[in-house]
Specification:
Layout lengths: L2 H32 L3 H28 L5 H18 L3 H30 L3 H29 L9 H19 L10 H4 L11 H32 L4 H29 L2 H19 L4 H16 L2 H11 L4 H30 L1 H20 L28
Helix pairs in contact: 1-2, 1-3, 1-4, 1-5, 2-4, 2-13, 3-4, 3-6, 4-5, 4-13, 5-9, 5-12, 8-9, 8-12, 8-13, 8-14, 9-10, 9-11, 10-11, 10-14, 12-13, 13-14
């Protein structure tokens, strides 16, 4: 494991997903300063989520054809530029386009950076969990940063939100020469051509297993986004707690998810990848049910923490499983699992919002629980896959010839 390279990539993941979390954090300010309706800001949110989910697999295919490490810094710089421009846009259409460009930048980052993180971490699941939790941390920091900047300066100060990306881009530019001057060689991810080249073992994509993994991820994404969107309201309206309690429950869920991501990587290294995957899905089902039917706030708070841990236990192992199911297309694999499949929940969130308006928050959360059953069934069917290392087998020593009997 190349710890320095992995740590740097984790830091860049914090920066990239900071802009992913900045989009929902900007929506209340867009409503208050520009008078946008709920439908208008929902369209802006979908501009980032929907477009990002569609184009991310495309960037994955590009990464598979040739190493394009520059896509990672270009991605978070584009995301930062889009968010900053949205703050000074003078029309709804221009704001929508700026946020959509930010979504494209966020999508461009993930396949390239995930491949680099896998190369730096090798077969370690803990390494992938550390990289993944960087994204969770970035999304968690976004509301505080947006509130600090936009709350103090208004939308015209949105250009300051681009500062983290500019600093990280400068560090990215000097990282290569700095490492070479000290004799460090960064781990390079293999492209599809290199993985299938002559002289090594023949690698075959297992599309059937990958389809099962995508089904599990989609079934995970919908209840996850539903919980994130409705949890605070559920705590306040159904459990009659304060707005501070609702925010605390959401924070507990995020922190539980970060802990689950790290724990899942550790368990994957010590007990195999399927162990945290199955444990997470099996534990997540009763935890999610306890959250839906919780009679009091403290019951819901305990369920939220357990639910956050359980839902994210499979996260890092599933990323590496996806790349091993499609070893000749690792960028496509990460693009589909981290992009298209996970964003289905974001695309479905307006439907769950309407369901909550019509039948209540518990009903919407209950339907999310029913969808999670699909994820559990698919998750339990996942099997590990160990790829050959490409090293030639050690030849067996030839037996020494027996000495001939002496002749008289």
């Amino acid at each position: 494991m190349k710890k320095g390279q992995l740590g740097f990539l984790t830091g860049s993941h914090v920066v990239n997903d900071l802009y992913q979390g900045a989009v929902p954090a900007l929506l209340p300010f867009l409503m208050s300063e520009r008078g946008y309706s709920y439908s208008a800001v929902s369209g802006i949110a979908l501009a980032a989520t929907g477009l990002s989910s569609v184009v991310q697999p495309v960037f994955g295919m590009l990464v598979d054809r040739a190493a394009r490490d520059w896509l990672a810094p270009a991605g978070f710089l584009t995301a930062a530029g889009g968010i900053a421009a949205a703050g000074v846009a003078d029309s709804y259409l221009l704001t929508w386009l700026c946020v959509a460009i930010a979504g494209i930048g966020i999508a461009a980052y993930h396949p390239a950076a995930t491949n680099q993180a896998r190369a730096a971490g090798g077969r370690s699941q803990r390494a992938m969990s550390l990289f993944s939790v960087g994204g969770t941390l970035g999304a968690s920091l976004a509301p505080a940063l947006v509130t600090l900047v936009i709350g103090s300066l208004g939308l015209s100060g949105a250009y300051l939100l681009a500062v983290p990306a500019v600093v990280m881009a400068l560090l990215w530019a000097v990282r290569g020469p700095w490492m070479r001057s000290r004799g460090h060689t960064p781990a390079q991810p293999l492209t599809a051509a290199a993985r299938t080249g002559s002289g090594g073992p023949q690698l075959v994509d297992d599309w059937r297993a990958f389809g099962t993994l995508v089904t599990a991820t989609v079934g995970w994404s919908i209840p996850y986004v539903t919980v994130v969107s409705l949890l605070s309201l559920h705590v306040q309206r159904d459990l009659h707690a304060s707005s501070g309690a609702g925010a605390a429950a959401l924070t507990s869920f995020t922190l539980g998810g970060a802990a689950g991501t790290l724990l899942g990587g550790w368990l994957g290294d010590h007990h195999g990848r399927t162990m945290p995957v199955r444990t997470g899905y099996l534990l997540g089902l009763p935890a999610l049910a306890a959250l839906v039917f919780a009679p009091t706030f403290w019951t819901a708070e305990i369920a939220v923490v357990v639910c956050g841990i359980a839902l994210f236990l499979p996260f890092a192992p599933q990323v590496t499983l996806a790349q091993d199911y499609l070893p000749t297309r690792p960028g496509t694999a990460s693009g589909l699992t981290l992009g298209l499949a996970m964003s289905v929940g974001g695309l479905a969130s307006p439907l769950f919002g309407r369901l909550a308006d019509a039948h209540g928050l518990r009903t919407a959360l209950g339907v999310g629980l029913a969808v999670f059953v699909i994820a559990v069934v698919a998750g339990l069917r996942l099997r590990d896959r160990t790829l050959p290392t490409g090293e030639p087998p050690t030849p067996k020593p030839e037996p020494e010839p027996e000495p001939e009997p002496a002749t008289v």
